[in-house]
Write a structure and sequence with these properties.
Blueprint (H helix, E strand, L loop, with lengths): L1 H30 L5 H10 L8 H29 L3 H29 L3 H23 L7 H19 L1
Helix pairs in contact: 3-4, 3-6, 4-5, 5-6
Amino acid sequence: MQTINKTMVMVFFCLLVLNSFSEADLIDSTCKKTSFPNLCLTTLRSSGVSVKASVNELVINILKASLSYASDSSNQINDLLKKATGGFQKQCLKICAKNYDVAISGIREAIQEIGRNEISMAQSPINSIDVEARNCDSACKLRISIPFSVRNTMLSHFATIMLEILKG
């Protein structure tokens, strides 16, 4: 009886380990194909993605992380806008606020499109996430230093990762 219980425990343990490896394999193999594998791995592993996740579900998890990230960036921009004193600084922040509104809208649209398995329809709003982040950065970079430039770059990297995953 004890031998059977030990055998069952051992089999159960092996199945758990195999499940963990299959999840890691999907995430690892997917993320290794991107330009930013560490960001991809970190994002997906922290999202609690399911062992049975499809590639679309991986992208949705990155989109959700992007939405949170973009919303936080938008809040920071709006806080800075309230405190802005210089004309160019205000102009720059207003442009960025609009860029992030468009990016956030694009993220939401992409989540819906991927949820409907409309991959080709999701690529345009995902591409706009990259464009809007870059536009915010370029609107300000020439004349002032913006404290959220790194955030623009990160959002651009998220978009790149998602497009690369979707293109397979």
